[in-house]
TrEMBL record:
<dbReference type="GO" id="GO:0010333">
    <property type="term" value="F:terpene synthase activity"/>
</dbReference>
<dbReference type="InterPro" id="IPR034741">
    <property type="entry name" value="Terpene_cyclase-like_1_C"/>
</dbReference>
<dbReference type="InterPro" id="IPR005630">
    <property type="entry name" value="Terpene_synthase_metal-bd"/>
</dbReference>
<dbReference type="Pfam" id="PF03936">
    <property type="entry name" value="Terpene_synth_C"/>
</dbReference>
<dbReference type="GO" id="GO:0016114">
    <property type="term" value="P:terpenoid biosynthetic process"/>
</dbReference>
<dbReference type="InterPro" id="IPR008949">
    <property type="entry name" value="Isoprenoid_synthase_dom_sf"/>
</dbReference>
<feature type="domain" description="Terpene synthase metal-binding">
    <location>
        <begin position="51"/>
        <end position="288"/>
    </location>
</feature>
<dbReference type="GO" id="GO:0000287">
    <property type="term" value="F:magnesium ion binding"/>
</dbReference>
<dbReference type="InterPro" id="IPR050148">
    <property type="entry name" value="Terpene_synthase-like"/>
</dbReference>
<protein>
    <submittedName>
        <fullName>Terpene synthase</fullName>
    </submittedName>
</protein>
<keyword id="KW-0479">Metal-binding</keyword>
Length: 346
């Protein structure tokens, strides 16, 4: 569960107990409202950035998910000291969603190839070969990374290169999927799984979640997370298996590349119901590996490890408890209201 939502609900429950400590209750409400006010200020800044980008009008094919992105990131870290990290990561996930939709449902294969090519080059002059709508996406991506670097202290500037490389790797996976779709290729289960673990964006987002954090995010931490340790692999698998099962009908309605679930069903000659049972087993195994990694000592601070754990906990909440809430925004509306619109009465 998302810690922020748990806190909100528990305050209500605690108030109904027979003998609550009213001093603690009042402090809890004050703390919740103070942090809520900070979140609202961040949400305002992010919304203004999104309004300047204006994808709703300029990129009509893409999902408009800036509020949902911030809601997701609040599940990764809600604490006041991570304000800078939250703003950066919310923008990253919102733009990754735009890139995903561009490759999945709109761009031609040649446009996908051109965008992948210029992203590898990573300079603004390369944008001239792109169509106007792709130019907007590409320049917004570069500007986001530049703006994020400008928010960093001089000793932290190296982190921007990890953010850029994360986007490059993500777009390579998107292009591979677009190429398979255009060719009518039905990949093997293992081929599809390996690419889709990257296109889930979890490896990139785990790294990106460290970018705006303070001194706790060391150079060693960035090296560790980019080596795809088992915790990141398990997180990617859990996210992918949940997404494939919960989002199966939506993905099929878009006539996309066969999912990991489709490839497994074909390879094993299984029914969907039987394959779903296997995916649910793998999801539970992924959670066991996540819990084990979370408890075992590593050279990386537990504060950073917790972000990866929170990513998947929030994914679980959005896709299962909130019924694919990221893609069905009406399912998260009341929770967004609880966290950002309704202060607690004191």
């Amino acid at each position: 569960m998302m810690k922020r939502l748990e806190a909100r609900w528990y305050i209500d429950e605690y108030e109904e107990e027979e003998t609550p400590n009213h001093v603690i209750l009042e402090l809890a409400k004050l703390d919740f409202n103070i942090v809520q006010a900070l979140h609202c200020e961040e949400l305002k800044a992010i919304s203004l950035w999104w309004k300047d980008f204006n994808p709703k009008e300029k990129l009509g094919y893409a999902r408009d998910r800036i509020i949902e992105s911030y809601f997701f990131i609040t599940g990764v870290y809600f604490e006041p000291q991570f304000s800078r990290a939250r703003i950066i990561l919310a923008k990253v996930i919102a733009l990754a969603t735009i890139l995903d939709d561009t490759y999945d449902i709109h761009a031609t294969l040649e446009e996908c190839r051109q965008l992948a090519h210029v992203v590898e080059r990573w300079d603004k002059k390369s944008a001239e070969i792109l169509d106007e709508y792709l130019k907007l996406v590409y320049l917004t991506l570069i500007n986001l990374c530049e703006d994020s670097e400008n928010e960093l202290e001089p000793s932290e500037k190296y982190r921007a290169s990890y953010l850029i490389e994360g986007f490059k790797t993500l777009i390579r996976s998107y292009f591979q999927e677009a190429e398979w779709l255009a060719q009518g290729y039905f990949p093997t289960f293992q081929e599809r799984l390996e690419v889709s673990l990257v296109s889930s964006a979890i490896p990139m987002l785990c790294c990106a979640s460290f970018v705006g954090m303070g001194d706790v995010a060391t150079k060693e931490a960035f090296l560790w997370v980019n080596q795809n340790p088992d915790m990141v692999r398990a997180a990617s698998e859990v996210a992918r298996f949940i997404d494939d099962v919960i989002g199966y009908e939506r993905e099929h309605s878009l006539e996309e590349l066969p999912s990991v679930l489709d490839c497994y069903m074909k390879e094993q000659n299984m029914t969907k119901d039987a394959a779903v049972i296997r995916f649910e087993e793998w999801t539970r195994d992924g959670w066991r590996r996540l819990n084990q990694a979370f408890l075992e000592p590593t050279a990386v601070s537990p504060v950073l490890i917790e972000r990866i754990f929170n990513f998947i906990a929030t994914t679980h909440v959005l896709y299962i408890h909130m019924r694919n809430g990221f893609n069905e925004p009406t399912n998260v509306k009341k929770y967004i209201s609880l966290l950002y619109v309704e202060p607690l009465c004191i």
